[in-house]
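Limitations
The structure tokens in this dataset are predictions for the assembled complex, not deposited experimental models. Users should treat interface geometry with appropriate caution, especially where small molecules or nucleic acid strands are included. An illustrative entry is reproduced here so readers can see what is and is not provided.
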Amino acid sequence: MKKQLQNLLLKIYQSLYDYFGPLHWWPGDSTWEIMVGAVLTQNTNWNNVVKAIQNLKRENLLSPDALYKVEENRLADLIKPSGYYNIKTKRLKNLVNFVFDEYQGSEDLMFKEESGILREKLLSIKGIGPETADSILLYAGNKPFFVVDSYTRRIFSRHKLIPKKANYKQIQDFFSLNLEPDVSLFNEFHAQIVMLGKTICKNNQPNCVICPLKFLKKEKRLNNINVLIR
DNA sequence: TGCCAGGCCGGGT
DNA sequence: ACCCGGCATGGC
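Predicted assembly:
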């Protein structure tokens, strides 16, 4: 049963990869750019996040020292395009303060922390929830944590592979308990799901002929998914 | 033009 | 344990 589910997930992944090709996530070239982007993209279009990050880059504010020292008013002004700028300013400050308080401002030192412990610590920061924490761990820290977002929930519940009301951990377990904990796989898989959500699956087309996952309609439904998820 | 985007928090049931 | 309003800009 578990093997069957594993093969189905790999087939889904392969179909997406064949369709979209490699996506090269995370679109950012430094650890701090990724971590900042993870906060700024909360419920926000990535295009707007790019504008905010460009502002921070131009002002050389993507280093931990600079982020630590920058005035909140100035930071808020620069990240304005990404929306929720007041609350996100606080969240970025909470994150950078955490790295200084616990790891002397060194992200390398932070990622030497045992991953499970680090995840709990990240979740204790105000403004860092499960998706942001897992994005930081996976994309900035190269730790095998599967990232679950709204696209993941929508797409996989529509295909009846997870319950409609599954919570974050249940969805994450659905993937990470049925896949090898491979950083590259987790990285690309989540990117592919988001790409599918942003393009083809955007409008819940019931019979979309170009959807790379259309083969799922022909798959035999796994009858005891509920047991696997719970 | 109104709706939505790669969430999360806090207060109320 | 859920449920919901608030947070805010830019693109279609």
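Some entries come with short summary sentences. For this one: Residues 43-45, 47-48, 51-52, 80-88 of chain A lie near DNA strand C (CB under 10 Å from a C1').
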